[in-house]
Design brief:
heterodimer; A: 398 residues; Isopropylmalate Dehydrogenase; ten-stranded mixed β-sheet; 17% strand; B: alpha/beta; two-stranded antiparallel sheet; 36% helix; mitochondrion (chain B); NAD binding (chain B); tricarboxylic acid cycle (chain B); IsoCit/isopropylmalate_DH_CS (chain B)
């Protein structure tokens, strides 16, 4: 959709223009420049066209608070965005995990289809509900076909960990594999769970991985599998990776069995560069990597599909036990919101907030409980906002 | 810990009896008073046990040779029946011979048999075939921080008990539509109850306080849900042991940050594979941890992480610790505790000497040097040994 049509083509021109210029205090020149630049970008044919800004150059993003620490962290994200005057409006959609009906989830999915981008907290999967009630997070990922889950694990300078210099990108197939939710009890006491691997999805995820590796200038992609046991399934996945690899001669492909991979990760994680794998191994490996760089509070995650993108914390924890105690680490969620801003091509805001978060992380005094410190969530967020203000940006009142 | 009930003769009484009654079984009177459900497999002739030895591929053969060398040196009353399994052949005769030998002897020590990727998918993993045919339902791996080995984490002491025969390793796959493969993961009530019972019994025997079940029941509600339910049922029969559960992704994350919180862990096959490898990595690598596979009637011992080690085969750089500790587990199983503790102590004293550390521990030692040092330690500790 051409951006200029929004402004000029539907009879809004004079009214809108007048609106912009009657609010000189709140909209600065930079914003109008961003507006113009994004309209230019939109006119280029590209695969990752950000969703059209709906009104006055502001993007609307779906916000799903989820359970546990989700609501409070997302409040902080909104606070930081308002403070930094980021041109993003959040459309909040609540999903009640205790209900058995799918209405809430359908509303959320429709909202994401409408807006194209979302930021979400984890929705709890209650074990007490019957097995026919599928995991809400999973339903969201499969309905929107968010086939690639990307997690970038990097050692942060201010965080003390046992391993240093880790820089691993993990690309995990997000829609099939062991998470098909296809199970049945054919004979009483015997349960069969189906793990589905398809050629299309495997080629798609392998292609995504190699494209991403090329964009980021990475040299090696490792496919993680268990093809010695699951010969057809993981064998197909491996074969697809090899096929795709032949089209990227500048990038080396190697493969490693998942048990060896996890063992290598805990002894020598620096050897890994980009890793691509099916769903379950992706779950385990990404959690191991998150643990290696400092825990679930630090790493953001992104789920990309062809048309939609949803951002969340990488390890998808609900954090029920620390909910509303003001001790959760907001870093993961804030960095996820930066990824979202990058996706919307609001790169300046993204780097501003990201630098502020990383600067704050360097201060051990502010570390929250998961990093071994005693700081609170609000202190961290305040510090982030102070750093942003000190950079000289035009911001709201603190 | 098998349930075969035949009489056995302890190796320490061998010198007394072997000359007098070479035929049949000789009952050691002092052992009759102790009544237990477990008895070691029968010593066949003159108080010596026969154990099947499957060298396997990669570093297997050389490590198996070192084990034989060490046993001969210490005069351990164990004879090895060597059965070779050729991993390049597609026929199952080799592995069937091996299985028959294990049925005959009851106990085995094996190296890992390579699974050739170039062969068609109908060619099942030989190791998996062995485990399922002999119904070796429990794979037990005890990961302990060793004193001489420097690792990022200290004071780790985790027993991982992994269901060994079903789960994702059922080898049931098919391509119903071209380009779409379905792999079946089977979880049954009987086997889940059995492994949970094994886990709690082991925890009780070893005086452990907590058992953690690892699962992914939020996604695989029926399958891992059933597993979890079975664990809870069994837990109710062991009130002195606390039972908790953890999702596999959180488990692996906790393992790399705070592994000291785990005590005994029980889980289905695939998670067991991953978690036990993580634990092995945490305590120092694949060269240090022994593993044991127990069934109703048979027991097979091997290295904990089942590596073939093709790239370091025949280079005299492999770490023999895992295989030697596995042979100590074997001796414990055969109730030859004296020999087991003697060899184990010698191994631990050798490991403390970082001069002898092999390449996987960051040193430059060779396999033969380590084995030599172990034999020296045994000789210096006193018992009568062969000249070497």
């Amino acid at each position: 959709m051409c951006f200029s049509t929004l402004l000029w083509g539907e009879g809004y021109d004079t009214t809108l223009f007048a609106t912009i210029w009657t609010k000189p205090v709140l909209l600065n020149i930079k914003l109008t420049l961003v507006l113009l630049l994004s309209s230019v970008h939109l006119q280029q044919q590209g695969e990752n066209i950000p969703p059209p800004a709906k009104y006055g150059g502001r993007h609307t993003v779906t916000l799903i608070p989820g359970d546990g620490i989700g609501p409070e962290l997302l409040n902080h994200v909104r606070e930081v965005f308002r403070f930094t005057c980021v041109p993003v409006d959040f459309e909040m959609v609540n999903v009640n995990s205790a209900l058995e009906t799918d209405d809430d989830m359908n509303n959320a999915i429709t909202a994401i289809r409408r807006n194209g981008v979302a930021l979400k907290g984890n929705i709890e999967t209650k074990h007490t509900l019957p097995a026919s009630v599928k995991s809400r997070n999973n339903v969201l990922r499969t309905s929107l076909d968010l086939y690639a889950n990307v997690m970038h694990c990097q050692s942060l300078p201010g965080v003390q960990t046992r391993h240093k210099n880790i820089d691993i990108m993990i690309i995990r197939e997000n829609t099939e594999g062991e998470y098909s939710s296809l199970e049945h009890e054919s004979v009483s006491g015997v349960v069969e769970s189906l793990k589905i691997i398809t050629r299309n999805n495997s080629i798609r995820i392998a292609d995504y991985a190699f494209k991403l590796a090329r964009e980021r200038g990475r040299r090696r992609v490792t496919a993680v599998h268990k093809a010695n046991i699951m010969k057809l399934g993981d064998g197909l996945f491996l074969q697809c990776c090899r096929e795709v690899a032949s089209g990227y001669p500048d990038i080396t492909l190697d493969s490693m069995i998942v048990d060896n991979t996890t063992m290598q990760l805990v002894s020598k994680p620096q050897q890994f560069d980009v890793m691509v794998m099916p769903n379950l191994y992706g779950n385990v490996v990404s959690n191991v990597c998150a643990g290696l760089v400092g825990g679930p509070g630090l790493v953001p995650g992104a789920n990309y599909g062809r048309d939609y993108a949803v951002f969340e914390t990488a390890t998808r924890n609900t954090g029920k036990s620390i909910a509303e105690k003001n001790i959760a680490n907001p870093t993961a969620m804030l960095l996820a919101s930066c990824l979202m801003l990058d996706h919307l091509n609001l790169n300046d805001y993204a780097s501003l907030i990201r630098n502020a978060v990383l600067t704050t992380m360097n201060e051990t005094r502010l570390h929250t409980a998961d990093l071994g410190g005693q700081g609170t969530t609000s202190e961290v967020v305040q510090s982030v906002m102070r750093v942003i203000q000190s950079k000289g940006q035009f911001t709201a009142e603190l | 810990m098998t349930t075969r009930s035949m009489r056995a003769l302890s190796g320490t009484l061998k010198p007394l009896f072997s000359l007098r009654s070479p035929q049949g079984f000789v009952v050691a009177a002092c052992h009759q008073t102790h009544k237990s459900t477990y008895t070691a497999p029968p010593a066949r002739y003159g108080g010596r046990h026969t154990v099947t030895l499957i060298p396997g591929d990669g570093i297997g053969p050389e490590l198996a040779k070192h084990v034989c060398e060490l046993f001969r040196f210490c005069c351990v009353p164990v004879d090895f029946e060597v059965v070779n399994v050729d991993s390049t052949k597609t026929s199952e005769d080799d592995i069937n011979n091996a299985i028959m030998a294990i049925r005959r002897n009851g106990v085995a020590l094996k190296g890992n048999i390579e699974t050739n990727h170039n062969l068609p998918p109908s060619h099942k993993s030989r190791n998996s075939l062995l485990r399922t045919t002999l119904d070796l339902y429990a794979s037990v791996m005890h990961s302990q921080s060793l004193p001489g080995v420097r690792t990022h984490h200290r004071n780790i002491d985790i027993i991982t008990i992994r269901e060994n025969t079903e789960g994702e390793y059922s080898s049931l796959e098919h391509e119903s539509v071209p380009g779409v493969v379905e792999c079946l993961k089977i979880i049954t009530r009987t086997k889940s109850l059995r492994i949970a019972d094994y886990a709690f019994r082991t925890a009780r025997e070893k005086g452990r306080r907590r058992v953690t079940a690892i699962h992914k029941a939020n996604i695989m509600k029926l399958g891992d849900g059933l597993f979890l339910e079975c664990c809870k049922e069994v837990a109710s029969g062991y009130p002195e042991i606390t039972f908790n559960s953890m999702i596999v992704d959180n488990t692996t994350m906790q393992l790399v940050s705070r592994p000291q919180q785990f005590d005994v862990m029980v889980m289905p096959n695939l998670y067991g594979n991953v978690v036990s490898n993580v634990c092995a990595g945490l305590v120092g690598g694949p060269g240090l941890v022994p593993g044991a596979n127990y069934g109703e009637n048979y027991a097979v011992f091997e290295t904990g992480t089942r590596n073939t080690g093709k790239s370091i085969a025949n280079k005299n750089t492999a770490n023999p610790t895992a295989m030697l500790l596995a042979s100590c587990l074997l001796l414990d199983h055969l109730k030859l505790h004296g020999y087991a503790s003697m060899i184990r102590k010698a191994i631990l004293s050798t490991i403390t000497d970082s001069q002898l550390h092999t390449a996987d521990l960051g040193g430059k030692g060779s396999t033969s040097e380590m084995v030599q040092s172990i034999m020296d330690a045994i000789q210096s500790s006193g018992p009568r040994t062969q000249r070497h």
